[in-house]
Amino acid sequence: MGEYPSILLENAVNQFSSLPSVGRKTALRLVLHLLRQQPSEVEAFANSLTRLKHEVKYCKQCHNISDEDICPICSSRNRDHQTVCVVENVQDVMSIENTGQYNGVYHVLGGIISPIDGIGPKDIEIDSLTERIIPEQIKEVILALPTTMEGDTTNFFIYRRLSALSLPEPLRITQIARGVAVGNELEYTDEITLGRSIVNRVAFNG
Amino acid sequence: MGEYPSILLENAVNQFSSLPSVGRKTALRLVLHLLRQQPSEVEAFANSLTRLKHEVKYCKQCHNISDEDICPICSSRNRDHQTVCVVENVQDVMSIENTGQYNGVYHVLGGIISPIDGIGPKDIEIDSLTERIIPEQIKEVILALPTTMEGDTTNFFIYRRLSALSLPEPLRITQIARGVAVGNELEYTDEITLGRSIVNRVAFNG
Fold first, then answer.
1. Do B8 and A48 touch (CB under 8 A)?
2. pTM summary value
3. Which residues of chain B fall below pLDDT 70?
4. Which residues on chain A are in Cβ contact (under 8 Å) with B8?
5. Largest alpha-carbon pair distance within chain A?
6. Do A49 and B44 touch (CB under 8 A)?
7. Which of A1, A11, A32, A53 best tests the B interface by mutation, with the highest count of B CBs <10 A?
8. pLDDT per residue over A58-92, tens digit each?
9. How would you write A44-106 as a 3-class SS string?
């Protein structure tokens, strides 16, 4: 007998402890909690994961997670479609939406440039951002990436790419105000600071 | 649009945040992590849960989680089958096994008496414990329940039930030494303290 009294139990614990910041003791507690639920509830838990993976879509315009080909923000008539806020991931869209301070649309990169993790410009949605500018008549791109080295690198890369475009009229490139503490992820920033940093955005100076 | 950009995403987040001590932000991070994995990996995660729920067994003798009708501890020839350690749950068996200080068998109650949670003696495996004493010629019952009010109540209830049995020879009823800090759960006790408290067990004085 190994550490666990059952292989089935051990497998489930292994799966949970493969999740970020879930240790083996926590994983065991979560699995034993599920084991105490009704079979239908465990079934619902498992199904929600497989359905999500198989059926989820990504908005063809902004690349946010969506149930439709075009997400509700991109298809809304009440949003300013000439202002695009560039964010790293889905959580960041939700965080900015929660501030209630932003009425433009988004562009979800799906990551940031990080040589140490082997993530280059081609691995994230930068080309698709530059391809949106002319057809959507975008007037302003707001860079809302984390205030980290990787965020700065990505900001600079996007700034250079957008500056190199030949456009009928000049594009405003801004970044959210550095009210966000350096080194912090957007999703952990309080809503007031994050909302203010959107309102107080400043011209990106390269 | 609600808080989440996708109903499928929201469903999965709801499932994760129904787990103990998993908040909605953590749930979202876990779900988005899974979403970045291969479909086969998400499938494996989901399957491990449904298989566990449908196929897991409980040992007919000690009620521990098991892949067989009788668990490896109860079927081992190298264990002392006349000494039974009574614990609240599966984690406690694993904690005591990890000390390497105990060579008897177990009896997993599957809970402790807790009037505030509506858990009475009939809801946990107390009857099946008393029924084991004569046929298995058990000589000692070690009470290893948490050092909480509920643990004390359950200890006392079991002590009275066992004392009322008419047995061919007297049964030794002990409890683990109170080296375990009052108010603590067994699974969070360090192995040295827990191991010593098994070795230094004392007669249960009612």
1. yes
2. 0.77
3. 1-2, 178-184, 205-206
4. 48, 51-52, 55-56, 67
5. 72
6. no
7. A53
8. 999 999 999 999 999 999 999 999 999 999 999 99
9. HHHHHHHHHHHHCEECCCCCCEECCCCCCCCCCCCCEEEEEEEECCHHHHHHHHHHCCCCEEE
